[in-house]
């Protein structure tokens, strides 16, 4: 198989092909590990919501964790949709419409349903137990009000919808290949137009459906609508990856990645400290956030993809890490919540700070989530799905 063909190989977690593009395998695994650290931080002072929140470290109590979480949110799920779009495009080119749909319903739909009905309630039971909340009434309320995917499998539900729409459009409509950039100049114009569209659309979307507002994520997908346009753009870009990757890659990717993170951190700190004092109203920060979020997604995401593409270490196989990454994603909430409660109980107030707790829970969470995935696929029949 030629180098060009190898770059376009389907990179599903379970593949029958011998040829792998290891840097994308490793990038996906790294992003899932980052999801685990992200959720670990939410309990100990980071900004955002999570199933368990430490009574010793209220949300937003740690500047470092809040910045860490805010920057993660700009790109890590978008990058997972980007990679998934690539996987799906190559898979769809090799299968019939019916075979593709059945495979996606099996590999995304079944884990989504099982997680929502069995694993997520178990996560909540552990949290309720730690808070001395009556479990049976709370569990009854959970099932009575269940209206869609819950917990991290919102990603699977949304990806399943994207995949079914994509393969159906692909079947009945001629692909608009003329829209795919065929030069660096055209790529830059296309990227600028798309990012600007997402910025404007996301700003108005947040006015109607704020991230931290009273509205729940959209059922039945469990999707935060404020980020939906970014995910759609990322998925479409992933579909086109084979054609546009040469324009995505940047030179000195390590330096570019460091500068992107530095820009994201400094600009966020400056905005948080200056905008409220300068304007005393909310809309300037909302505009800043819409622009900042999508620019971080593009520049960090592009630099990260280039870094994994270029580095000698990331282009080598990382053992069986990729094989268990999907299962680790499915099991990580159960692992993380258990570790958070355990570490909080052992650490108590002030004895172990939120940042240190995050590092401990995140590190152990990565190890135990992959271990749980190793056990999961040994259940009869699971290996054919996960």
From TrEMBL:
PANTHER family: BLR4337 PROTEIN (PTHR36927), BLR5718 PROTEIN (PTHR36927:SF4). Keywords: Acyltransferase, Membrane, Transferase, Transmembrane, Transmembrane helix. This is Acyltransferase 3. The chain crosses the membrane at residues 30-52, 64-87, 108-131, 151-173, 185-205, 225-244, 256-275, 287-305, 326-343, 355-377. Coiled coil: none annotated. It holds the Pfam family Acyl_transf_3. It comes from the Eukaryota. It comes from Mycena venus. GO terms for molecular function: acyltransferase activity, transferring groups other than amino-acyl groups. Residues 22-376 form the Acyltransferase domain. InterPro entries: Acyl_transf_3_dom, Glucan_succinyl_AcylTrfase.
